[in-house]
Specification:
Layout: E1 5-8, E2 14-17, E3 21-25, E4 31-32, E5 44-45, E6 50-54, E7 57-68, E8 71-80, E9 85-94, E10 100-111, E11 116-118, E12 126-130, E13 140-142, H1 149-155, E14 181-184, E15 187-192, E16 200-205, E17 212-219, E18 226-240, E19 245-247, E20 251-256, H2 259-273, E21 284-287, H3 289-292, H4 298-310, E22 317-320, H5 341-350, E23 354-359, E24 363-364, H6 369-373, E25 380-381, E26 388-389, E27 400-402, H7 410-424, E28 428-431, E29 443-444, H8 452-467, E30 471-474, E31 488-490, H9 508-518, E32 526-528, H10 548-551, H11 557-570, E33 574-576, H12 585-589, E34 603-604, E35 615-620, E36 630-636, E37 643-648, E38 657-662, E39 667-673, E40 677-682, E41 687-695
């Protein structure tokens, strides 16, 4: 692959050229709160390049400096030793005599219709893969100039999305977004669909601990040509006193043969940059929420533990979700658990499981005694008003206050909370509503030199200190900003017990799409695709009409199998939420197909097809080496009617004879050549799982099983 070249022009603009892309860009001046936009400074080259390592990759850094609006601005360029990657980073130092507030820095701004070319073409030929800051956003590939379901998912940005009963952002028509702008974080990939042999361009921000970022793709008013592609680093108006400096993360440009390869490479760089160890085996979790909601009592806990003794399932963790606490802030047992939470943990341990518990450490109830005792815990905005987080439930309808992790009392509060949970016997912690700290639009932290990303990281560090080596499952917080501090991370919206909502909106496949486009992050933690709901049930449990979607059991048998496939291809933890005494035996037996989680995340083979990928390949390496290795090839049908798919076996990275067995129908499909194409019938919303094993034509071979996928 040709290396990436850099040309710096006399006016400070620069041109980046790769094997198949070209970007003409500039570095605008810093954006300061209460001041007019600053112009790009005139940069002066510095001394010789110095050695550096960025995301585990060696290279050199050259530096330029300039002065604008009383700030000295430095622009650095990183070139990897192999020439395959270029990085841009900027910093500012206050060389003036007074304080300023830094709103944002923009290392790269490419403006105008011809400013960015991928394989010689502009947005009309592009297919863009967008990632996103928020778990409820729907990542995926889209055409910038075409309005379809993929563009609908892409255009809705949930960076400031507050609360929504588990909805994806695309399911909220009240969210208004500019149709000409798509925002991404931490990266986006661009391919020219009309040049299939060309490389894919990836633009990525290497980190989320110093600031949040927005990669903004804006079209002209006619939605045909490019208006701007820029990378904006958000500093939230942090205080910058004379002599103080702030610096962005590296903005990295790289080419690759496909988007999945580039996403995996980026995740590996985050892991290297933040020293994240490779996660160990993922757990299997029972969670109370996605059947009971808040109507889960001590008696329900004991009933489920009894049923699991009668009909065992090898869960590692039994997690009590939202239901148990008196309020957000004090976190003591309420009337649903009259024996207290230590007794609940003791009962779970006696059942053979690790006790898990749900909290929301970044929100506080206005009614909590903690707020009255420590008023500085409440995060305030620039006008001095409390930052709030909406929370809709019948008996807890207050707007919750947002906790300020930089407040003097915050560390002790979080250490005490998680120390108490551990003393009760809980050693798995689901942390929800973490986005509460990210969504305020104009926060002013007690430490005015901290922004949202830094405050989030500080709060998570306090929680990790309080939780010790317990398992932390993050939900709704930052992705890269959590790396190295959490063991698991939710990667999609809350599930519902149905494929289609009553209003006709397709909901469950969108959750699978979120999982498919984020499963590569298993290098940083165990991905959590949210819970399986495999029951048959009509009518809400105990008349909970407000949360009827939780106990709904409308999935067909084919849809249930697809739900199981979603857990399998994710490669992370497996989760189930049921009233075990109600779960039909045939549905319970289906759990053997995915428990325990033992395989890596599947590789989507058609990642950029419309709506959602349909082909997923997983290598299987058995513990018993006599069995040899094989692959599973999952084929999905998103349509509302049966389809017949042609499946080329060239997707299997093996030559020669291949033995093929279909696991769902338990059908032997014969021995085929790697050049063959199979025709597979798939029911509506259904899936097929092919077990494909290389065969030498002589040796004994396990053809298939009715056990684990």
């Amino acid at each position: 692959m040709a290396g990436i070249g850099l040309q710096i022009e006399k006016d400070g603009k620069f041109v980046v050229r790769g094997g198949h892309f070209e970007i003409h860009a500039r570095t605008p001046g810093p954006e300061l709160v209460g001041q007019q936009k600053t112009e790009s400074p005139q940069f002066t080259p510095g001394g010789n390049a110095t050695s550096a390592v960025v995301g585990g990759i060696s290279g050199t850094v050259s530096t330029e400096t300039g002065v604008v609006a009383g700030l000295q601005m430095a622009r650095e360029f990183f070139r990897s030793s192999d020439g395959a990657m270029l990085g841009i980073r900027v910093s500012v130092t206050n060389v003036g005599a007074r304080d300023v507030r830094l709103a944002s820095l923009t290392p790269l701004a490419a403006e105008g219709e011809t400013a960015v070319r991928v394989a010689g073409a502009g947005p009309a030929n592009w297919r863009v893969l967008r990632m996103s800051r928020h778990k409820n956003d729907v990542p995926g590939a889209f055409h910038p100039t075409v309005k379809d379901i993929d563009f609908e998912h892409a255009r809705v940005d949930g960076a400031e999305f507050r609360a929504g009963m588990g909805s994806t952002t695309a399911e909220r028509p009240d969210l208004r977004c500019d149709d000409s702008i798509v925002q991404s974080e931490p990266c986006l990939c661009i391919r020219n669909e009309r040049a299939p042999d060309a490389q894919v361009l990836r633009i990525a921000v290497l980190g989320q601990t110093e600031h949040l970022s927005r990669l903004i793709l804006a079209l002209n008013s006619d939605r045909v040509g490019l208006h701007e592609l820029c990378v904006q680093c958000e500093f939230d108006g942090v205080l910058l006193s004379p002599g103080e400096s702030r610096r962005t993360h590296w903005v990295l440009l790289r080419e690759g043969k496909d988007e999945r390869e580039l996403l995996e490479d980026f995740t590996g760089m985050i892991a290297a940059e933040m020293n994240v160890p490779v996660p160990g085996p993922a757990p299997t979790v029972f969670c109370s929420w996605y059947f009971y909601g808040r109507d889960f009592h001590e008696a329900d806990l004991l009933e489920n533990l009894d049923e699991l003794r009668r009909r065992p399932i090898p869960f590692d963790v039994f997690l009590i979700d939202n239901c148990w606490m008196d309020n957000f802030g004090e976190w003591n047992a309420n009337e649903r658990f009259p024996s207290g939470m230590a007794k609940a943990a003791e009962a779970i341990r006696a059942g053979g499981f690790v006790p898990g518990i749900w909290t929301c450490p970044f929100v506080l109830s206005p009614r909590s005694a903690i707020v009255r005792k420590y008023p500085r815990l409440v995060l305030r905005d620039a006008d001095g008003q409390p930052c709030t987080f909406p929370y809709r439930e019948a008996d807890t309808s207050d707007n919750l206050y947002v906790l300020d992790p930089t407040a003097p009392e915050a560390k002790d509060y979080l250490l005490e909370l998680f120390g108490r949970l551990r003393a009760w016997g809980f050693h798995v912690h689901k942390l929800d509503f973490l986005r509460a700290l990210i969504v305020p639009r104009n926060p002013r932290f007690h430490d005015e030199r901290m922004n949202r990303a830094q405050a989030y990281r500080l709060g998570m560090e306090h929680i990790r200190a309080g939780a010790g080596d317990d398992y932390i499952l993050a939900c709704g917080g930052l992705f890269e900003g959590s790396a190295g501090l959490v063991d698991g991370n939710r990667i999609g919206s809350d599930v519902k017990g149905r494929w289609i909502d009553p209003d006709g909106r397709i909901v469950h496949p969108v959750r699978i799409k979120q999982n498919a486009f984020r499963s590569h992050t298993n290098r940083l933690w165990h991905t959590d695709p949210d819970a399986l709901q495999i029951r048959r049930r009509k009518g809400p449990f105990r008349g909970q009409t407000d949360f009827a979607h939780l106990s709904d059991g409308s999935f067909t048998d084919d849809e249930v199998y697809t739900c199981l496939v979603n857990q399998y291809i994710g490669g992370g933890l497996v989760c189930l939420s049921e009233r075990m005494a109600e779960l039909a035996e045939d549905r319970r037996r289906m759990l053997r197909h995915v428990i325990p989680p033992v395989t890596p995340p599947a590789r989507p083979l058609d990642l950029c097809r419309p709506f959602c990928p349909t082909l997923f390949l997983t290598p299987v390496t058995p513990r018993d080496k006599r069995l040899g290795g094989w692959w599973t090839l999952v084929v999905l049908n998103w349509e509302n009617e049966p389809v017949t798919r042609e499946i080329p076996l060239r997707h299997i990275p093996a030559a020669g004879k291949l033995a093929v067995f279909e696991l769902v129908t338990q059908a032997w499909l014969g021995v085929h050549e790697s050049t063959d194409v199979l025709r597979i019938g798939i029911p509506a919303h259904g899936s097929r799982v092919l077990r494909v094993a290389p065969w030498d034509g002589r040796s004994a071979l396990l053809l298939g099983t009715d056990c684990h996928m």
